[in-house]
Specification:
The protein is mainly alpha-helical. Helices cover 53% and strands 3% of the residues. A hairpin with a 2-residue loop joins β1 (77-78) and β2 (81-82).
Length: 115
């Protein structure tokens, strides 16, 4: 059976992993929800609804209602890859959200994470 790409994985499974990453470092789901909402424009209700649906992670990010124009200020490395140099727009969105959660997990204040 071929492996799924991150785009094909369920939003619920990927988001759950992001929440767990933050919680292991003493952060909360509410903070992960806040950065996700800031980045994508989804409301907290829409995020919850997506968690209960069959939506894929790729569809969730590509269908973001109001992707934050300040997302271009998200820089740095995730998994050894510089976020600002990623050319594929959808992969860039995946890495940007991952970077924001990484910054939360490293103890950065939410005000600074949201740029």
């Amino acid at each position: 059976m071929p492996r799924k790409t991150v785009f094909e994985m369920s939003f619920a499974s990927v988001y759950s992993a992001l929440i767990q990453k933050a919680e292991r470092k003493g952060r909360t789901r509410a903070e992960v929800d806040e950065v996700t909402s800031w980045l994508t424009g989804y409301s907290l209700k829409e995020i919850d609804r997506s968690l209960s649906s069959e939506i894929t992670y790729g569809a969730f990010l590509s269908g973001a209602p109001a992707y934050n124009p300040r997302s271009e200020l998200i820089t740095g490395k995730v998994c050894g890859v510089r976020v600002e140099t990623i050319e594929d727009p959808l992969m860039k969105r995946v890495r940007q959200l991952d970077k924001l959660v990484d910054e939360l997990a490293k103890g950065k204040p939410i005000e600074k994470v949201l740029r």
